[in-house]
Amino acid sequence: xxxxxxxxxxxxxxxxxxxxxxxxxxxxxxxxxxxxxxxxxxxxxxxxxxxxxxxxxxxxxxxxxxxxxxxxxxxxxxxxxxxxxxxxxxxxxxxxxxxxxxxxxxxxxxxxxxxxxxxxxxxxxxxxxxxxxxxxxxxxxxxxxxxxxxxxxxxxxxxxxxxxxxxxxxxxxxxxxxxxxxxxxxxxxxxxxxxxxxxxxxxxxxxxxxxxxxxxxxxxxx
Length: 222
Ligand SMILES: N[C@@H](CCC(=O)N[C@@H](CS)C(=O)NCC(=O)O)C(=O)O
Fold this sequence. Notes:
This protein is α+β, with helices and mostly antiparallel strands.
């Protein structure tokens, strides 16, 4: 039997958190090896583990996979969270990319210079309430079923619910006008595997604060 996947990244959210969420939602246990100092990353680079000298990297099924989207695609396919045919997969990709666009804006916010933060936060609020959340609310409204793809959970729901937690951390009132998204968040959060991941002490990472940014700067030398 294959061992647990091993996740290589620093001990924070960054680009790995969506991978942690997807594995956890699929009920897959994983190990983590944290990059804490430049030498840890250099070691992986020098032993040929990183195709593009970058992490996230996930050791899974005898492969050393890099590139966040490639890793997510593999996990989603393996655990049947990627639709039943090409058309469903295209929609799931479209939803997942929309989530990623807003997610990247939120992920980069703590890294932005103090003088730019307010303007960036205003832009995030505007895009959240006027562009992204209405689009996803409308998908749910259009078919009246439990998940974005109808009656079956897919990776798009997992990515979206992860995003909704981040939106809520920024400002809970941003979700106020989206009852179907709030219901989706509750529904997915109550799936046993997700519920476990949401408990304190799981491998879910806390919000990115100054200390985490310092850790990331140290590990990745930026
Ligand atoms: N397109 C890549 C980008 C990966 C990336 O930018 N990784 C950063 C950490 S978040 C990194 O490894 N930086 C170190 C370096 O580039 O030397 C992905 O999505 O995985």
